[in-house]
Structures are given as C-alpha cells and as structure tokens.
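step: validate -> pass
step: tokenize input -> pass
step: predict -> running
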Amino acid sequence: MEWYETGDGVETWQEVLLVYNAALRQIETKMEILNEEFQHVHQYNPIEHIKSRIKTPESIVKKLRRNNLDSTIENMVNHVNDIAGIRIICSFTSDIYRIADMIEKQRDIKVMTVKDYIMFPKASGYKSYHMIVTVPVYLSDKTVDAKVEIQIRTVAMDFWASLEHKIHYKFEGDAPEHIKQELVDCAHMVSDLDDKMLQLNEEILELSHMQEVEREEREKERRRQQELENQIHQS
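step: predict -> pass
step: emit ->
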C-alpha cells in the first residue's frame, strides 16, 4: 500500500517517522505481553530485553545510494526494509526459534522475509535471526502497513555483533585481516559458549524436574503413612 505523501516537505518525513515509531511500539508491546504470558504459563522468560531504533536519514540516504536509487520518501518506504528496527535479546539459542514462532503466529503481523544467520552464519562469524514483517498502523484517516526488521539473538551474539559493528565503522568496512580473523575466532567461542549454556540450562531443568518428582513422591508417601496411622488409631 502506498501511504507516503508526494512532495518533499517536512510534514511528509514527520508522517513517516510517526508511522514507524507507532509500528515499533506495537511490536514492543506485543513482545512484552507474550513474555509475561510465557512467564505465567511456563515460569520462564525467554526475552532478556528489547532494543528499538529508527534508522537515521543519513543512513537511509547512504543505503539508497548504494542501490543507485534517488533519495525520495517513496524510495525510502518501498526499498529500505530496516528503517524501523527492533532487536530481541534472549538467553539461549532455543529461545530464538521459540520467539520467532510466537511472532509468526500473531494474526496482525505478516512475515515478509526470513534470514536465518544462526543456521547459516555470515563469513564474518555474524549470527542472528532476521525477520522483515509488516504491522498495521491505524491512523485517523487510513490504515497503513509499516515494515519492521526484527533481529533475534542471544546475549552473547549481541555482544559480539556490537563489537563487530564498532570495528566496521572504525575502519570504514576495511579492517585489517588479523582483526577480521580474531573476530571470526571470537564468533566460534561465542557459539561454543551459547551451546554450553544451553546444555547447562537443559541439565538444570532436568534436575529440577527430577527433584520436583521426588518431592511429590515423598509427599504421597507421607500422606499414605498418615492415612495408615489414622486407620490404626481409629481401630
């Protein structure tokens, strides 16, 4: 749906910002509600925290130029999918797909594309789960579908990506080879850490379940003994 206004006035860009900010708030609220529901049902929060941002006009213009497109509002809306971005940080790799599944099941969120850099990491070592979705924003005179990029990653992946991002801009995308290799090595360590943390968490959950079963068995046995003693006293 074409929802931008023609012309290059300030009000046009302000409307774009209004729509994308509204879209971010909607998705953030949805994720907070799902996280609370998950806590209520499973006594566990898959989401550690959520970050959101609107891409700066300078970054948008650079992206358009890289794709040989004119810097117009129309091109921004139609060809830049990550003007609005939200990053969901979770504890374990298993949470990533759990969260993605919850997002896909939302009736008013339409998933346009998915890029799974968890299963297929970038050559740099970058790992994350990317989704481009649209969410309806209800204005006073129309409803528009705004695109939002959702990135889902673990705390460890986010730490690595933050460092890689800083290095990329520090060297303007041309970092020395030994630094690139160090980043790849660190990415492998991050992956190993995520695997070990997931394994440890699963072991803890299994032990907790076994302890709960044992407590229930002891309680049942206590009740049986109590009933037997009551029968003896009554006789």
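step: describe -> The chain has one domain: 10-197.
step: cleanup -> pass
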